[in-house]
Structure formats: structure tokens, C-alpha cells
Amino acid sequence: MINRRIHSIGKQIFVFAAGVFALGLIINATPASADGFGPVKAPKVNAKKAALGKRLFFDPRLSGDAAISCSTCHIPSKGFADGLELSKAYPGSDGFRNTPTLINTAQRAAWFHDGRIGTNLNDVTRESITETYNMNMDMRLMQERVKQDPIYVKMFKEAGYGEPSNGSIRKAIPEYLKTLTSRGSAFDAGKMSDAAKRGFELFKGKAGCASCHSGNRFTDDQPHNTGVPNNPEIWKKPLRHMTYVAFGLFMGIENIMNVRRDVGAHVRTHKADGSDIGKFMTPTLRELNQTAPYMHNGMIKTLKQVVEFYNNGGGNDVNKDSRIKPLGLSKEERSNLVAFLGSLSGKPLTGAQHVWKEKINVNYQPIKDWLKQRN
Fold it and tell me: Which residue segment(s) compose the domain that 71 sits in?
């Protein structure tokens, strides 16, 4: 099991390069204006490519042993999160971070809680599919599996991709993700309650939330340390700890066997003084009603508790952002702020749901023959 988690030099180079790219992107990114609140504009989508991407997104054959699909962790009815503190993972391992929503992700400036990959969804899709503790798929085998399915052969051709290929798979799934755009919230419709309206004013003013949760997606796409406590389950459960160690090894975290915290954005910057340890990307506040529990490790269960956390000045961490201080909000003000946060959620994207009813039939012989020819 441990051997399966030892990555090739080529993959390490890919991850390192992606991290460097993300770092440059974030440093140069222009945060959304605090005055830019409003509905999220849906990007243009190629319908046939998106339909293909949707089928791929829900297809368990894209994982090594056909056990899980992208939708195993990104469930439409749960805001394309999974409702768990810490994510599931490929059989034989367990995740060490909370599953984030995929809604509006086509417009993100960086991916994953540590922001290690930039806006290229092709790269994000590749890592998500090939990473051993995610879907553990060899992309050469994935290509052969897809080619065996006559429905895919037809859909790839109709989408303009020609014959199914790894590259076109990595393009089609992001095209589907573009269709996942927030809609129908009370905030966007101008139908907030009076309490939510008062909460919005607190959000922009006294509470100071808008300094990081800016723009129409309510995120500045930057990493910050707010002192969120570590989730002890990562080190109590061997499968989660092993996953984190595997991740840390190829991300170059020093002394990883003795590290007992998630270092976050440190995997991008590796600052010698460690001042980047514990920083995580500002999450979107869209669809919060569907995506509990909260924070990068699921340590806070409800919106009320989130507001209490920040009202108390966040958690304790040597690297905590200097802006995180006790807010002094009254009980009514805290209630109004919770009402506003709840107004940012629309109805679940039920139209994005897909129930995989097809019989999974993976014929391995053509794959074995193909590998024999290559070797």
C-alpha cells in the first residue's frame, strides 16, 4: 500500500511546476473589489462538451478499480461537497481535508485549500484523477476504458474531440464544471429578510468579513491564517495520516513524519521562517446552507458557530492574520450575520444530478494486450 503512494519523479516535477505556477498567479492576481457583490455571471458553455463532461464526472470507471467517481465526493444535493468533516478517498486511504464545493469553481483563481494549482482546470482534473488517494487512475488505462464504450465514442466525436483521449477527457470535465453556477439565492434576487440586510451591513462594516470575502463569489482567492484548530482525526486514524504523509513527501514538507498539523499554503511558498504555515485559501460563501461542515478540515459544524469563532477573534496560531481580532458583536448582530450568510444559498443544482444506472463492464484484456505491446 505504501509503495503505491511513492510517486514517480515525473509526477513530482508536475506537481512542483503546478505549485510554482499557482504561486505566481496568486501573487499577481487582482482580488475582487469589495464593491463587486452581485450575482455570479455564468460562463459560456459548449453544450455537447458539457454533456460529455457530465457523464465522465459521474462515471466510476475513471477511478483505478471503478469504485468511485468525481461525484462520490462532490454530490449535487450537498452543493457539490459531501457533508463530511474530512473527505473520503480511494479505497485503502482516507482524506485529510474537507471537500469544497465545485459550484462557481470555473472562475476560481487557484484550486485546492492550499491554492497549489492555478486556473488551468485541465491540470486540476489531471491531479484529481491520477492522484493515488483520489481516484488512482493511470490515464493510459482510462483512455482505453473510455474507448471501449460506444456511447463515449459517439459523444467525443459529436463534441468535436474526435477519438477519446486523455487530453479531451481533461477538457470535457471542466466544461461541465462551467455549468455549475450559483443561482436563485435571496441575495441575488433582492429578497433578503430585514435581518439579512442588517447582516450584510455588518458583513461590509463592523464585522470586517468583506476584507477577505470580496466580490460576487465572496472570496479574494488568497491564503490566510485565521487560527482554525487542527482536526485530530488526521493523526488518530492511520489511513488519514498515511495519506497526509504521502502528500507531504511529494510536496516537500520537511520532517513530515513528525508534523502534526496541516501546513496549508506552505506547500507553495516554503518560507524559511514558516510564516506561511497554516494559511488556507479564503473559501467562497456561496451555497453555505448545503456545504456544512466548514473550514478546510470541517472543524466548525454550523454557520452560528462560524460567526462565534470570528466574533471571539478566531483561533490561536502564531501565524494568525493580524486582522483577526474579537469583533464585539451582540447576540442580535451575530444572528443577523448568520441570516445574511444563509441568504447566499440558492436551491440545490438538481439539474446537475446524474444517476449512474449503466452496468459497469470493464474488459481488461484489451488493456493488457496494449500494455504488452508497449513493453
Answer: 3-181
